[in-house]
Amino acid sequence: MNQPINQTSATTHSPPPGSRREHIPRQERINALLRDLEARRASISIRFGQDQEFFHGTLNRMDPSRGWLFLSELTPYQGNLRMAAGQQIHMYAVLNASCLHFRAEALHSGEHDGEAFHVVSMPTELDSEQKRAHFRAPVDDSPGTPVTLVDRDGRQFTGNLVDISLGGLRAMFPLKTPIHARDLLTLSKLAFSDIELVQCGIQIRFASDDKETGTRLVGGRFYDLSQSDEQALLRTLLFMERERVQQCEPEHRTFYPPGQ
Hints:
By secondary structure, the chain is α+β, with helices and mostly antiparallel strands. It has three helices and 16 strands. It has two domains: 22-129, Pnp Oxidase, Chain A; 137-225, Thrombin, subunit H (Beta Barrel), CATH 2.40.10.220. The strands form two sheets. Strands 2-3-4-7-6-5 form a six-stranded antiparallel beta barrel. The protein has a six-stranded antiparallel barrel with strand order 10-11-12-16-15-13. The longest helix is centred in the C-terminal third of the chain and has 22 residues, at 227-248. 29% of the residues are buried.
């Protein structure tokens, strides 16, 4: 894994015409965001090239004078074996409800005190995916994705997911289900794509009956969402958004969906 460190400037990629990504052109702004991530020892999700698998680590340190970012050991561990010098990577982080994405180049990998570490180039261009990390991804599967909420008395309410975000969800329940605004419930089960969220709190923001459809629409905000569940949910939302963009603009064959 040990490779000599060669100072390398990050490759700048301009989006094709029609891209909906919001670009932050000023290097000072990029450095300020990276310093904020560094101070928080923020979780970083990494994807290699066109691969769909994500690996996770933290941003430990930055050295703007040399153009380097220092990342912790990745999990799953296979990600460390793939971090070779010259490897192009996509990096994602959530900061103040914004999902930040940038491209970087792996410069060096090594080991210290039995743990792997990685040095990657400082980005010169940063994207703010969908402007907000809490963009809502609609759920289009016809059978309905089941979601179960539990109140403080242990009563379970099962409905179907309407849409979901890192911030919360909306779901349809049978008419007059006793769920009300400001209720604090537990999301006990959400079998959704390749993730399953368990024992996450949800604060109900609104609940309203629709007599024509015979359903009750409920919306809530997550709390006590674990880091691992948040990362898994972010990964799923990015996949859903990529598919949505491809479906909405099939005529643009050269359009790059978020993260590519």
